[in-house]
Structures are given as C-alpha cells and as structure tokens.
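Worked example 2:
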Amino acid sequence: MMDYCRSRKGYTFLLSTLFVGAVALAVTGTMLMLGWMALRNGVIIEDSGKAYELAMTCAERGLVELFNDENYYGDENISLGEDSCSILAIGGSGNENRTLCAEGKSGSSVRRMEIIIERILPAIKTSSWQEVDVFSSCPS
C-alpha cells in the first residue's frame, strides 16, 4: 500500500511540473510575440512620420519653386537616402488657381499632401493644405 501512494505522489509531481512548464512556455511565447509586434509597430510609426515630413518638404519645395517661377511644372522626384518624395505635375497656369500635390515615401509608408493655391504673387495664398489618401485635385 505504501509503494502505491509514493508512486502516485511522484506521478502528481511530474504532471504538475509539466503543466507549470507548459504555462511558462506559453507565457514566454506570448511575451516574445508581443515584443516583436511592438517593435514592428514602432518601425511602421517611424516610417509614417518620415513619409509625412518628406511630403511636407516636397510640398514646401514645390511652393518655393512655383513662387520663383510661375511656369514651374513640377513632376520631380527627390531621393533622400532610402526615402524619397515627389512633386507631381502642378495643375493650372498663371498666378491664380493652381494645385500642388506632393508625396513622401519611407519604407512601406506613403503620405500625400494636396495644396490648393489661390494666388502665387505677391505672396502665396493657399485656400487648402491637407493630407489626403488619394489625390483629387491634381492632374493625372
């Protein structure tokens, strides 16, 4: 009778140890997965911020070029290391009612700025400057 109780205690201890080990392994795996996902989200957020700044940079460059030469056409790509931004073809002509669209790309992130310009000279006056998902006012 004594040997039977002793062997059951060993069996219970073994099962308890295996159960605790399985739970610890599951928790460790979950923590590793959450850490990896947080790192990945951080990279995506960083790329998105860079893409936004690149789009703003190209938009401002396009406005300066347009201010210096109202016949500036745009359609320009600017590479900054692995990242880039583009000034699309500028819509309209002359001093009034122009559209400027700029796009920044960093990693897998793309951000777009669309600017509606009321007049260029004597000072640039915009009626709209917004971030968009899809360009609606820019020439194709």
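The two ends are 89 Å apart (CA to CA). Residues 2-68 form the longest helix (67 residues).
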